[in-house]
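Let's study today's protein:

:::
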Amino acid sequence: MNDKARQLHEVVLELGILVQPVVDLVGGDTPPAIDQYRVACAKVHAGDAPWRQSVRKLTTYGPDVFLNTEFQKTSHVVERFLREINTKITQAVKSNGLAELQSACAAEVRRMKEDFYECLAEIPVDWKPEIFLANTPFTAYLKLKNAVSSARTRLFHFDRYLQPEFFDLFLRDLPRTIELRLVTTHGNGTYGVEGVRAVSDIARREFSDYRLIEVSPNQLHDRNLVVDEAVFSLGPGVDRAGLALTNFGPSDASSTAQSEFARIMQSGVVVHTS
């Protein structure tokens, strides 16, 4: 169940590793030499075929069900990216503009990411309710991470007992430009605003659209995750999921429900913001 979410997460993670040689060059303080770009592109090209196999798995839904159009668009993301980078290299050879090349390649990295996520949005992930059996905390963690890691535009987490561990376990791989809202109660030194204040103060400096919001306990009961347009409901906190029988799955994502989540956030006090 929810294998597509796991496969999607793997495709995203593997792409990040695949294009890292170019990302490292455009993120440096000193403009790299042209030959460094050529070597970086060769490394990316060498890993493109195995990555495409991961995309094929993601777009395969059964022995006779294959999303060929979605596969073609997504699997050629790296090819399109390398074509643009090589065009920029050719232009730089003629002009010897290494600073301009670095800036142009950085822009291509951004465009490649946008292209990739637009393609991913067309590949359906069918979330279904599931029950984590008792004594399966690691399985529960992996399934929850699949849901959280699929976020591309926003992640709202409502938990009156928010724990510091949530930051390290679930926020590490999220895009830093995501709309991130963590809604909890005042708590004490182990949970809630008081429990996460220190790590939240660090996170707000890195995420560009971040808020830690404190609400009164009577505003929160069930834990809920809003991931882009989807809503997930979780019984216990993420730190206790799978220790006992645990329900997790999609919940009401209607405009009425979304408005209620917005109302809860608006009623609270913003403790930390970007």
Summary: The CA atoms of residues 10 and 43 lie 19 Å apart. Residues 130-273 form a domain with the Endonuclease; Chain A fold (CATH 3.30.870.10). DSSP finds ten helices and ten strands in the chain. The chain has a mean pLDDT of 91.
